[in-house]
Every structure is written in structure tokens, then in C-alpha cells.
Amino acid sequence: MNKLIDLQHITKTFDSNTVLDDMNLYIRENEFLTLLGPSGCGKTTTLRIIGGFENPDSGSVIFDGQDITSLAPNKRQVNTVFQKYALFPHMDIAENIAFGLKIKNKSKSYIDDKIKYALKLVNLDGYERRMPDSLSGGQQQRIAIARAIVNEPKVLLLDEPLGALDLKLRQDMQYELIRLKNELGITFIYVTHDQEEALTMSDTIVVMNQGYIQQIGTPEDIYNEPENAFVADFIGDSNILDSIMIRDELVEILGARFACVDTGFGENTPVDVVIRPEDVELVEPENGTIEGVVTHIIFKGVHYEMEVTANGFEWLVHSTRMFAVGTKVGIHVDPFNIQIMHKPESEDEEAVGVNE
Question: Within this chain, do residues 310 and 213 fall inside the same structural domain, yes or no?
């Protein structure tokens, strides 16, 4: 895939608060890229800079080889879908969808064809004469997307577009967006703080914190190979433990020695260890590396979520086997499921991560 958007050394400050700090990021053609992170991490500001609604204090926005840093939003080949939909309440659905095309002085037959095409694409055929307030939240969101795609943008920017929907609708819309992206063959740049949403839809996830990129990768990379404790903690549930790398392929966790597959951390080095709850195996006490007691259990449908106190740490465990509260268990972890990470030397470094 060709590089379509290249953000080069982007810095943005609001009232002496640096929201983006020397950010470098490129986005490929036809990619579904998600900017993921907590509130205030800089993800919406990044989207607004790409859309032309904010100007960076320094740095460049390169689009298809052209510098568009100071280009007005309506001159860019991008369209934005906001969380609040921003439909015109006094216009029917057809007029809402046609708005951008009329500004471009397109012919009536062209506009009518585009309206029909867009409504079919978002599964709302025949809604031309309906008013926005007669539609559900999910339907309004689809109309907002239809209005954006009739302008044939090369890039669709989506700013937390599913945030106002209930869980079932949100899940349905996730599949709709994946289908749309595949049918349209355009680039989607998506902003969310919802990890499940990011993991479900994205080709690439950019995890952000405090104005810095923490990690860039596929959903599988981000989940299975987090580069630091922030990413591990933000993406799904994790057991994050202060540990000591004894030597290559051997780590001490809570006073017990576990085999692992990592090398190159030196000897007797403080490290962070991440173990996902589904990778903690509960066995007979004598068969585990350490022993513990089940202190809490919740049935989650697909699995049981348990807390196990072992060596002074509350382990989070997901298992299809149920162990009653009070049961003594052993904890075993496959060496491949122990993720070793360098400890940050300072809080600043913890925020920085990678920025490439």
C-alpha cells in the first residue's frame, strides 16, 4: 500500500499545554487506521490537523506528496464524520446528503444518483424524504456517513462516531464500517478510546498517551506484544508485575522463578512483566510455579473471571474452568505467554514510548 498521508514533526500547544510533541506518523492508502488513547492524549487534535480544522504550531501535513499544512478543510480530499452527526434538522435526508454536492454545483441528476447510491451503501434505501429527528441514533450516524462518502473523499475521518450509540448498535455499526471501507476502497482514520472497537476494526492501531505515540502495530501486535506497561494496561486486561530478569530466558516474579523466551535484558535487571488473564493457568497447588487462593469470581458468559491472591499479588485470571472462592490453586504460565518489557527510567520516559 502506498503512503497517502505523512505527518512530519507535528507539534501543537494549547495554552502552554503541549498536546502533540514532535509527532511523526504515516498512513497508507486504503488503510483502516485507529488513533487510540485516553482523553487528552492528542488523538482528536491529530484528526483535526489532518482535516484542516487545526493548524500545527510546527511540522508538515503531506497528502499524496503535496504539502497541505495550510490548505482549508474544504480544499482537502478528506471528509469528517463527527460523534454528534451534525445533520441539519430543517432538511430532509436527501437534502442533508446533497449539501456538499450542491456547494460544488453538481447537476441534479448527478446528485440524485449519488443520494440513491449512498443510501443503498448504508442500508437506508427509501429514506430520502424522512427528517433527521424521525431516525434512531444508528440511522442518523449512517446518514452522516452517507453525506461524507458522496463527496468521494480519499480519506474519511471519524471522530468517536459510535460513542453515542448503545452497545448492540455500536457492534452492528463496527461491522458496517468494515464493510463500507472494503466496498469503497478509501482510507479510514478513526478516533476512539474504546479498545474493543480498535481491535475489532483496524488494520493498524496507533496507541497515544500525553501527546506521544506509544506503539504502532496490528491489533494482534498491540495486544500480544505491548511495548510498554501503558499499552499493556490500556489494551485489554493485564497482570503487570515488577520483576527481575535473572538471565536470558529466566525471570523472577514475586520471588518465584519462571521460564520465559526473552533474551537481551542482561542479568539481575529490573523489568516489567505482562501476563494476560487468559494466559494464567490454574492447576493443582503442587503443579504450579507459585500457590494461591481464589478470592473472587464472576461469570462472564464465555469465561469465568477470577482473582487469585498469590505471593501478595492479586492475579486476574480468565478461565472456562470454575474454581470456587477459597480453593487453593497453583499458577502456571507458559514461557511464550510471559511478556518482558524494559522499565522506564522516569515518568517522562513512560509517556514517550516510541514515536516513529
Answer: no
